[in-house]
Design brief:
Length: 422
């Protein structure tokens, strides 16, 4: 399958115009021009509050509804009202955990993982203090995978929630959700999924995942800085939330108290349209007949095309990285590596501190990130220092094989210089 890389790169003004290699996408991706236009268009022609009885206000209401429909299609939600807009993913973990906390009883258990971003750990820990529940850790393996047998060992009939990421923002490991859903649902508990890192790399399908809640950030999937929550409608409607007394006790309104960024929502809608267009341009991407229908079909095809291209990129990245002297990959390296991970490479270079690797790559025009990547517990579990962490190169579908070559050549020079100067 031919991936329309030139078309893709041409859509992103910063990618098309700059000569720097941007490998810091897991901290926030670039946006297509259509997203810029949608945000600017909202601010220049529709910058009014919702709920008014005049045309512009009605059009903002309609725009938010259309964006909700787009995100619902992107997630394969059952109903449009299951999509809730807000500031970011972390805020939604907090909001749902606080609501669930009102339903949990002292002694009930919540499972979090050592693989997760702290955003999907800290709010559950706060609940432990607030309402006497117990938080249990699902330990991570040495290659940054989660082993389902270890989960089985910690589940009990008091387990009410498993909070887990679909993919690690630090190591790129992808987590198989269906076996987790089966186990927690057998205990009549809930599966809470953080899809922030996975979202730009492959199709999200909340029905297929079997989850009950899912959070995501728009700015990782080529949209503006905003976040959204998905939850099964009856669950969202039944959760006790804070709201003004006259706000309906129904999703999405009960979770959207106050004003959120309508310009960001307009941009998010355009980001989804970008994926849809990519799907239309990837007609030879094979899909199961049930997945290939209508708008959802185009979105799925777009994300599937991204996944397909990124697997090739990941394989190339890992092959080249393995040849850099003194480079240790923290994460999955096995024969099926590209199927089990995103193109997010967590690594250390022998004898060079992670911050120095980042600095020296920056001097060569290559942007990466060093540190604990908001996963200090994972760093410790992998035998790394929490303070220094590791280096992370995170790629998306507008990155290229040539950029990977430039990156690994630069690393080879850094490794050689370090050896000479020792
Ligand atoms: C896996 C993962 N979860 C959660 C978050 C937090 O997202 P937000 O900034 O939208 O709160 C991030 C941010 O980098 C992330 O990578």
């Amino acid at each position: 399958m031919e991936f329309p890389l030139d078309y893709v790169r041409g859509c992103f003004p910063t990618v098309a115009s700059s000569d720097f290699v941007f490998f810091d996408n897991a901290a926030g991706a670039q946006v297509p021009q259509t997203v810029v236009d949608a945000v600017a268009g909202h601010l220049t022609s529709h910058n009014v509050q919702r709920g008014g009885r005049y045309r512009l206000s009605e059009e903002v209401d309609e725009g938010v509804w259309q964006a909700r429909k787009s995100v619902a299609a992107f997630l394969n939600a059952y109903e449009t009202e299951e999509v809730v807009f807000g500031l970011n993913a972390t805020g939604f973990v907090r909001l749902v955990s606080l609501a669930l906390g009102k339903l949990l009883k002292p002694g009930d258990e919540v499972v979090v993982t050592e693989l997760d971003h702290e955003a999907n750990i800290a709010p559950w820990l706060a609940l432990q203090e607030a309402c006497g529940i117990e938080v249990k850790y699902w330990p991570v393996e040495a290659d940054a995978r989660l082993d389902i047998e270890k989960l089985e060992a910690i589940l009990t009939d008091r387990t009410r929630v498993v909070a887990v990421t679909k993919a690690s923002n630090a190591t790129g490991s992808i987590v198989e959700l269906i076996p987790i859903a089966e186990r927690i649902h057998a205990l009549k508990g809930y599966l809470f999924v953080d899809s922030v890192h996975f979202a730009p790399h492959g199709p999200i399908d909340v029905r297929f995942f079997g989850c009950d809640f899912l959070v995501c950030s728009g700015y990782k999937i080529f949209g503006p800085h905003m976040g959204f929550l998905w939850g099964r409608r009856e669950l969202l409607d039944s959760l006790p939330t804070f709201r003004e007394y006259f706000v309906a006790d129904k999703a999405p309104d009960k979770f959207e108290v106050g004003t959120f960024s309508y310009e960001a929502v307009a941009g998010m809608n355009a980001a989804i349209s970008y994926v849809e267009e990519l799907g239309r341009r990837s007609k030879d991407m094979p899909l199961a007949p049930a997945d290939a229908v209508g708008r959802r079909g185009d979105l799925r095809r777009g994300m599937q095309a991204i996944r397909h291209y990124e697997r090739t990129l990941t394989a190339h990245l890992l092959t080249k990285a393995a040849k850099v002297p003194g480079l240790t990959v923290h994460g999955i390296e096995g024969p099926n590596y590209d199927a089990l991970r995103t193109p997010t490479l967590c690594f250390s270079l022998h004898g060079v501190a992670p911050a120095d690797v980042s600095r020296q790559l920056a001097q060569r025009g290559i942007s990466v990130r060093d540190g604990h990547q908001y996963c200090p517990r994972l760093m410790r579990a992998l035998g790394l220092s929490e303070e220094e962490g590791a280096v992370r190169a995170s790629l998306v579908h507008y990155n290229t094989v040539e950029e990977v070559n430039a990156f690994t050549e630069a690393l080879e020079k850094i490794a050689t210089t370090a050896k000479v100067s020792k």
